[in-house]
Design goal:
The chain is of the alpha+beta class. It is built from 16 helices and ten strands.
Length: about 425
């Protein structure tokens, strides 16, 4: 009976065991365990940081997009149609367009606001009580007071809804009075003159975006038309869609419904530069952090080069015992690939857990430091957002594995080319 002399299959158990033994070997035995640990930690942190940063940037974009579009609408109709007597019919036709959720005739103008503690400028929006109640981003986020009585009385009454931050800066609460001054509502023989009127705060709202909470006031549409001298006209018709990304598709239908006197624009016309800047920043950060992952993977090269140098005698002995160049290459490839794979897996878990508990981590850091690490007045949002994009997480993981595998090849090829005779000449 003859022995089976067939070579072992690639990545066989003995190749994996030798690779693992080399990684665990201590320095006195020619190992590079410390460098392996450094490489592992470097890749883990690089992958985790890449996942965290990209998730936070995705969260920023999603939160800002949701709040900006939810608060401001997706399509806008302006032009002479706003002063036309058949405007109500135009609004009904727009609401009948597929994909349109809401069409709101609106007066929007700036006013000076005077309270007990402060004076500031604000943007006043005049909408009908029914439309305001359907704007869930506002009516669903009332912090104090309510909409009870809003729009009741002559010309809609004198109740207003104020942004929570604006109300706080003015020192008012529901039931208190704010004085609003319109810069050009009163028409006289000498031109337009400012008009002031006292309004009662019905409630305060907070949409979670400091810019809006600090500067917006809602009042009944009829009252806004009277206060700003619009007579029966409005400044725009604001349209909400079921999907903001369909704005370009729905826009022609809305234009037909608005007629030749209407001018239709969408949110991209007003915010495109802002979101383009976010996208450029996101792509730049991804590139920079991918380079950091690549730099961390370079530690594998230095560690494996030292390992190959220290294990030259062992490689020569394996070659004389029948191991081929392919087997030697695979042994050292497995050594480096194991570091990259384990580091990527650990970084993936660390990054996902960090994103899942980012608000708790933010609260803990603020508790420990006693400082506000995320100022809503600067960043527009009240907390750090994080949105995991699993396709992006998969891309990061694949990239890290790929760059780690590539980094192992030069030292592995060097080990495979070791000449047993030269390596054992002086042994």
């Amino acid at each position: 009976m003859t022995a089976d002399l067939r070579p072992a299959a690639p990545f066989s158990p003995w190749e994996r065991s030798v690779a693992a033994r080399y990684l665990r070997a201590k320095r006195k035995n020619g190992g590079v365990a410390l460098i392996s640990i450094i490489s592992f930690v470097g890749i883990m942190l690089a992958v985790a940081v890449l996942i965290i940063v990209m998730s936070v940037m995705n969260g920023f974009r999603a939160e800002l997009l949701d709040r900006i579009l939810g608060f401001n609408g997706h399509l806008f109709v302006t032009g002479q149609v706003l002063a036309s007597p058949d405007r109500p019919q135009v609004v009904q036709r727009i609401r009948a367009v597929p994909g349109v959720v809401q069409a709101i005739p609106m007066v929007e103008a700036e006013a000076l606001v005077q309270g007990p503690n402060n004076t500031a400028g604000a943007v006043v929006r005049g909408v009908s009580p029914g439309d305001l109640r359907e704007m869930k981003i506002v009516s669903g986020n009332i912090k104090q007071g309510s909409l009870q009585g809003f729009g009741e009385g002559d010309y809609g009454g004198d109740l207003i809804l104020v942004g929570a931050r604006l109300a706080a800066s003015m020192g008012v609460e529901p039931g208190d009075v704010l004085t609003l001054t319109s810069p050009s509502a009163g028409a006289t023989a000498f031109g337009a003159t400012p008009v002031s009127k006292a309004y009662t705060v019905a409630g305060t709202f907070s949409v979670g975006m400091s810019e809006y909470d600090q500067s917006f006031i809602y009042m009944p549409l009829q009252q806004a038309q009277l206060f700003f001298g619009r007579e029966e006209a409005v400044d725009k018709i604001e349209i909400q869609l079921d999907d903001p990304d369909k704005a370009a598709q729905v826009r022609p239908e809305v234009a037909r419904a608005a007629g030749p006197l209407g001018v239709v624009t969408d949110w991209r016309d007003q915010n495109q530069a802002f979101f383009n800047a976010l996208e450029v920043e996101r792509n730049t950060m991804r590139l920079i952090l991918m380079l950091i992952v690549a730099i961390a993977a370079m530690n594998i090269i230095s560690g494996l080069i030292m390992l190959v140098k220290n294990k030259s005698r062992d490689v020569a002995i394996l070659r004389t015992m029948g191991a081929g160049q392919g087997a030697i290459l695979r042994i050292f490839f497995l050594s480096g690939a194991a570091i990259g794979a384990l580091g990527t897996l650990a970084g993936l878990v660390l990054g996902v857990l960090f994103c899942a508990y980012i608000q708790q981590i933010q609260a803990f850091v603020q508790w420990v430091t006693g400082a506000n690490v995320f100022d809503a007045s600067i960043y527009f949002l009240s907390h750090i957002p994080a949105k995991l994009d699993w396709r992006e997480v998969g891309f990061v993981s694949v990239f890290s594995l790929l760059i780690s595998f590539v980094a192992t090849l030069p030292p592995a090829f060097q080990a495979a080319r070791i000449d047993p005779v030269e390596a054992l000449r002086y042994e």
